[in-house]
Design goal:
Elements lengths: L2 E2 L1 H6 L7 H13 L5 E2 L3 H8 L3 H13 L3 E2 L8 E3 L5 E2 L2 H16 L25
Antiparallel strand pairs: 1-5, 2-4, 3-4
Length: about 130
Amino acid sequence: MLIQAHLGFAQLHRLELSKAAYDLLSAMMEVQRPGGEVNASQAELRARVGLSKNRTSIAMSQLVERNIVLRPEGRYRSYFIHPFFAGYDGAEEMEEALREASEAIKAGELAAPALPAPQRHLSAVPTRRSA
């Protein structure tokens, strides 16, 4: 059984994920290797949680946009759960990974989990008034 940092999960609610994104992240956590590597296609993950192809794609995009899931370039069917949310074999491994991730974020080498971009609503757009 893998252990996970509670600090990341304590902040997960702030990232405003959809239910589908939570479900998809949960499925990824079930199949992750220590350190957060997930070798599964979206179709395999979709089957685990019962989402449609479209909902799975939208949910994965949400996870990637918020830097919870990282997609390595040039690797098919491979994802990494951000170190702040990944599972580890032990406390020492987790502490080292979190320390390294924090340093990489400070150095600009790793993106921190991010809030969604603010939505611009039509009500914020000025309207033309006719005379």
